[in-house]
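Onboarding guide, step 5: your first structure request.
Type a short instruction followed by the sequence, for example:

Predict the 3D structure of this protein.
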Amino acid sequence: MGKINSILLFCSIAIVILLTIPVAHCNIAQEPKAVDNWFQKLSHAKQKMTKLHFYFHDIVSGRSPTAVPIAQANSTSHSPTAFGQLAVLDDRLTTGPEINSTTIGRAQGIVGAASLEEFSLLMSLNFVFTNGKYSGSTLSLLGCNTVLNEFREMPIVGGSGVFRLARGVATAKTHTLSKNGDAIVEYNIVVLHY
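The system replies with structure tokens like these:
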């Protein structure tokens, strides 16, 4: 009986946690028939350009890190570039660099140290917008982030919601890097979409 109560308690806690997580809801219909109709009208649609500016809060220290290592190669601890280390992240996106700035979404994905010669991350991220004009939409980034360069350009390879079929460029610049590894990164993004 105690085991069943523990399982029920765990399930109840999991449900409460899942219900409190902000979920991106898009105003664009997403069922298959609606998506098909959207594509049917695409040949008549005008391409738009959208510029976005936000800050990415990458927290690796403290009680509630938003980026955590999940795997590494046996040789990673001997590599000056951390080659072979993988991390998963769920970082806040905000309107300003301050910790109390308005949250507009999350950067969710996997990053891996992918260079033997410089500190460079292969980034596979979704920018999930949960607040503001683009709430419910996403942009997908897949590219190389040479972290120690002042400016890093990475491709936007897709999106959802208002950013369906998006393509473009994200430019990152480190705003702040603390001694414990926490970083605030400024992003400027230009995307073409329909």
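Each response can be followed by summary notes, for example: The longest strand covers residues 48-58.
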